[in-house]
Design goal:
Layout lengths: L1 H16 L4 H24 L19 H5 L1 H4 L1 H17 L3 H10 L6 H16 L4 H18 L5 H14 L8 H14 L9 H16 L1 H5 L10 H4 L6 E6 L10 H7 L5 E7 L2 E3 L13 E5 L2 H11 L1 E3 L7 H4 L8 E6 L15 H5 L1 E8 L2 E3 L13 E6 L1 H9 L3 E3 L13 H17 L4 H14 L7 H5 L2 H19 L2 H18 L4 H16 L4 H18 L4 H12 L10 H7 L6 H26 L6
Antiparallel strand pairs: 1-4, 1-5, 2-3, 2-4, 6-9, 6-10, 7-8, 7-9
Pfam family, one: TrkA_C
Protein name: Sodium/sulfate symporter family transporter
Membrane topology: Multi-pass membrane protein
């Protein structure tokens, strides 16, 4: 038991600090648990211990520690979540969500109420049937464009987009990976999984409450961090960092290629575009030879510019403002966009230098928003994370490639000719069949979901190579790693001990006349606080065994306590790190960490009351 608690504490610290990616931490947990029994058994055999302090399996259950440690990979929850990623991607590639978004966007105008209502009203129901992180990623460009066209700060809409996706995910079993995981744990520990629409009635109630909050109190608490401007250079405050220079006749750069000049330069400078003989060139510029009279738009600070002019033989072109209009002259189509680092991106933990971003994507990064920090110089060695926003200039063709790349989310609407619109009825029909079969027949959700994923490929909604890109592998490895931790917590008696401590703490509430509903509310709050610090899936794994043991010690309905933990873990409003959708809008919204607390804490408190009362009403607190 002590070993399990040590692993839990270490995992919580790593999850909270993000010293390692969450999936790496989860794999470390899994390895530690598999190594534990041989070590403790050996110690017992040589007389160092009276008995093993940690055994991964119960005596006589016929399952080896190795198989138990790897059980997360064979878990129905892990496989179901994997299949749901594929189903969501199949729907996404038809363009149906973008079509719905465009139709709704055309009705919003410049009314903040309409824009906010459209954002919440669209993402919440969609999140009930496709992965809510995917829903936010798909709708983020549309919502940003709605805000800019309506002269509204995108910050006013992006946080509601994240929050609505979370409470919308509670409409069905498949809305979030957390629900699917909680269902499996509930089935294993008390023999009662969730049905497809198990908590839909409560999900509708909290969705309505959340919507009303965001349209009233929330709209006044959400700050306008990003200016309500269409000009991206103004949004990223690039006025002091973009300049046009001309190459003098005596410049030592003449004859060098752009790549050579940048490689040997000791200055923090990027060449954004080249104007030669009234033609404008964007990346790739590396192999172009520099000539006298070439005009370069460059990104650098004023002090560096002064030194650069003297050393490299350049002159500043006066009275030229390098803004969006100037940077868009190379092409009639959009070539200046915001790009968001997506969940599961290969860039996470890397830098612009280590990924060779300019060469790899034929694109120039002008600025980087890292949470509330804005970098316009010395960006090359900033470690990238989910939600970081890059101001990128590139050709329309390069932007289209970025838009098709699952590593990124382009935060402005970019036309995608590769949408398979003819497959819209098929993709929707497949998802409807998956939901219907799981809801109305004895067939398990994992079989239904895998069949749907196969159907997406057989019908051409997805191509076979796209299957692997559709899956967020960090989430899969996170699930596979933390599931054995929940088993260990249960089987070593750790859950019993934590439940006893919780009951002791709640004893004063019961003594003072508070009922089981108050204790249920406390369980919700404890889980909510935990999930705002660490992964929501890790919170479910740790708290559901404790919730069940607590209910049994109080002679209460264990299923009600499972539901409280599930709802709390799926609605992490108070920090950007509590849920992936919060991280996705962190950079594009320009939010501060405290913004989530200011807006999310009241909503979390309202949900605590509404969820507790709803569970008590629909499922009861007395033991079944």
């Amino acid at each position: 038991m002590l070993f399990v608690f040590a692993v839990i504490v270490a995992a919580l610290v790593l999850f909270a600090t993000e010293a390692l990616p969450v999936d790496v931490t989860a794999i470390g947990v899994m390895v530690a648990l598999m190594l534990a029994e041989p070590v403790t058994v050996l110690a017992a055999d040589v007389g160092l211990l009276a008995e093993p302090v940690y055994v991964l399996h119960q005596a006589g259950d016929g399952i080896s520690p190795l198989n138990r440690g790897l059980s997360g990979f064979a878990s129905t929850a892990t496989i179901t979540v994997l299949a749901m990623f594929i189903l969501s991607d199949g729907v996404q590639r038809t363009g149906i969500v973008q079509i719905l978004g465009a139709k709704i966007a055309s009705l919003t105008g410049d009314s903040e109420t309409k824009q906010l209502g459209a954002t919440v009203g669209l993402v919440a129901p969609i999140s009930g049937f496709i992965n809510n992180t995917a829903a936010v990623a798909i709708l983020l460009p549309m919502v940003t464009d709605i805000a800019h066209k309506g002269k509204l700060s995108p910050s006013k809409l992006l946080l509601p987009l994240s929050y609505a996706s979370m409470f919308g995910g509670m409409l069905t079993l498949i809305g979030t990976s957390t629900n699917i995981l909680a269902s499996q744990l509930s089935a294993e520990l008390i023999g009662r999984p969730f049905s497809m629409f198990e908590f839909t009635q409560l999900g509708i109630i909290v969705t309505v409450i959340g919507t009303v909050y965001l349209l009233t109190v929330g709209r006044y608490l959400i700050p306008s961090r990003i200016p309500a401007e269409e000009d991206l250079t103004e949004e990223f405050e690039m006025g002091e960092y973009l300049t046009e220079v001309v190459v003098r006749e005596d410049s030592p750069l003449i004859g060098q290629t752009v790549e050579e000049a940048l490689r040997v330069s000791e200055f923090d400078v990027d060449i954004v575009q080249l104007v030669r003989e009234k033609r404008t060139f964007l990346e790739p510029l590396g192999q172009k030879s520099i000539q006298a009279g070439d005009v370069f738009a460059v990104r650098t600070d004023r002090d560096t510019l002064v030194d650069l002019l003297d050393v490299e033989g350049l002159d500043v072109i006066p009275d030229v403002e390098v803004d969006d209009a100037e940077l868009e002259t190379a092409n009639e189509r959009k070539n200046l966009v915001e790009v968001v680092v997506a969940p599961g991106s290969s860039l996470i933990g890397e830098t612009l230098v280590s990924t060779s971003f300019r060469q790899r994507y034929d694109a120039t990064v002008l600025a980087l928003r890292h949470g509330q920090e804005l970098y316009r110089q010395r960006m090359d060695h900033v470690t990238l994370r989910i939600g970081d926003t890059l101001l990128v200039q590139a050709t329309p063709e390069s932007i289209e490639r970025l838009n098709r790349n699952n590593d990124f989310i382009v935060a402005q609407e970019v036309a995608r000719p590769d949408f398979r619109r003819s497959k819209i009825p098929i993709a929707i029909g497949i998802v409807a069949a998956v939901v219907g079969v799981a809801a109305l027949t004895p067939i398990h959700i994992v079989i239904s979901a895998l069949s749907g994923a196969l159907a997406m490929v057989l019908t051409g909604c997805l191509r076979p190579p796209e299957l692997y890109d559709a899956v967020q592998w960090d989430v899969i490895f996170l699930l596979a790693g933390v599931i054995p931790l929940g088993i260990a917590l249960q089987e070593t008696g750790g859950a019993d001990l934590l439940a006893e401590l919780f009951v002791m703490g709640a004893g004063s509430v019961l003594t003072a006349g508070g009922g089981l509903a108050v204790v249920l509310g406390l369980m919700y709050l404890v889980t909510a606080l935990l999930t705002n610090i660490i992964s929501n899936n890790a919170s479910v794994v740790l708290m559901i065994p404790v919730a069940i043991e607590t209910a049994q010690q109080l002679n209460a309905n264990a299923f009600a306590f499972v539901l409280a933990v599930t709802f709390a873990a799926s609605t992490a409003f108070m920090t950007p790190v509590g849920y992936q959708t919060n991280l996705l809008v962190y950079g594009p919204g320009g939010y501060r960490f405290t913004d989530y607390l200011k807006v999310g804490a009241p909503l979390q408190a309202v949900f605590a009351v509404a969820t507790t009362l709803g569970i008590a009403y629909f499922w009861g607190l007395a033991p079944a």
